[in-house]
Amino acid sequence: MIEETRKKTFLGFDFSTQRLKAVVIGEDYVVQQEADVEFDNDLPEFRTFGGVVRGERGEVTAPTLLWVKALDMVMDRLVVAGVDFSSIEALSGAAQQHGSVWWAKGSESKLSNLSPDEFLHTQLATAFVVDSPVWMDSSTTADCRALEEAVGGPEELAKITGSTAYERFTGSQIRKMFRTRERAYQATERISLISSFACSLFLGKIAPIDLSDGSGMNLLDIHTKKWCEKALKACGDDTLESKLGAPVPTWSVLGNISPYFVKRYGFKPDCKVVAFTGDNCSALAGFRLRSGWVGLSLGTSDTLLLGLSAPAAPPAGHVLVGPTEEAPYMALLCFANGSLTRQYHRDRLVGTSWDDFTELLRATVRGNMGYMGIYYETAEIVPRAGAGRWVCEGAGRRAERPQPQFEARALLEGQALARRAHAEDMGFKIDSSSRLVATGGASVNKELLQIFADVFNTPVYVLEEHGNAALLGAAIRAAEVWSADAGVKLTGSEPTLSPVATPYPDSEKIYTPMLTRYRLMIQDIPKLQ
Ligand SMILES: Nc1ncnc2c1ncn2[C@@H]1O[C@H](COP(=O)(O)OP(=O)(O)O)[C@@H](O)[C@H]1O
Ligand SMILES: O=C(CO)[C@@H](O)[C@H](O)COP(=O)(O)O
Fold first, then answer.
1. How far is the CA of 193 from the centre of ligand 2 (A)?
2. Which of 214, 359, 367, 519 could form a Cys-Cys staple with 247, CB 3.0–4.6 A?
């Protein structure tokens, strides 16, 4: 490795559900500038709520052009923040997982001939055949069952692809498009994940899908790291493989940045674009979790993540190819009712202030005098269930009109109990070396993290450097992949973890019986088939 003195910086993006974030780090991995664009408020013309548009039968989509316009906007905000684009050696990114982008015929040629004098969104206005189905979509149950059957059953599909069929996974979404909108399918030149779509904008051509995010499709053989032929055949026609392109390791340098960015923003022509990946994969790369540590992403979804050394087929949740060479595989468990559900009930119970919600929580005790609740404002992924609310008192009776303070705690304790119960079903074991490492928008809420610490009976940490591990992970991956590729040593080191919540000594006594009650409660919830 050589040491160089010229200033080197790295750029990371996170195209998550509700906003687009960007960060510039130095070669010491210290954050230098950042910017973000919130879809609902900054781009109201797309009429999204929480970054998405909901249909009547579980369809959840986002207008693809919204993300392109958000990129135009975030780039301008980085300019205003004083970013010197000429010092950026490499960039990478993360994006919400599973969602698909349907590129119209001729769009790759548009991507490679962009005029630097105009915004991306005006030039790509006709580049997408349909809006993008996203991870909250629950409209493909029939396609999931058909995919499982075609591959030899749910266990076989899980053995091959790391997961039984899930509605939001891209394979069943593609199958639904092929089955119900065949003209749109046929008019499609390429299908990207949201991560590889975002990467394509920087690369000036369609970027390959990376193996880690590609494992969230139910189409990839996570052992051979190639598309599973039977799964492809079940989801589309013989053009599907070429529509997807061959997947690549997440740590690949895909090429130099497109001339559009060089001319419009002053990037160096040899600034490298490193493959983009899923936000949870990127968070895992940002966390550097040790054995026994679990990542807890509290973004729009609540997601639990852990690194694995081998691709064990999970009884619940998903196994993905890992995002770095050090983390060959990862396990993931995703709950759809995360921040937006907390936010909805905060608004209902006290209005728009998190401080007022905290006051409400403080009027209750840990264990909530027996009140427990399960609140789904959107179809839940784990367990598979439709929207609904189930609140009961200590004696197990349905609580008819619980006071707002009991509801506030029942919501948060119910969520944490669900995370623990289903993590245990996935094989997660708690011992004295366990830790939760939290990230995402809600990880600033100390009371919420205290509830997680108590329910898991495990200390909770956060990253000192940044509250968004997916975003920081994207910039660090750009730096590390560039460093290995260029043979140039960087000074950055492991992120620092700070403790934010420690379990009280009586936590186990309070929450173990509640865990049993949670398991009984979910048996009575009508499941989606
Ligand atoms: N103080 C807080 N307490 C709890 N949740 C919060 C707080 N501040 C922000 N949030 C939640 O963070 C969410 C956004 O998190 P973020 O990680 O940006 O989402 P995503 O990455 O999915 O777009 C919002 O929906 C909001 O409810
Ligand atoms: O579907 C999943 C993971 O399987 C979600 O976690 C999405 O990746 C959305 O992420 P956030 O926007 O909630 O971070």
1. 13
2. 214
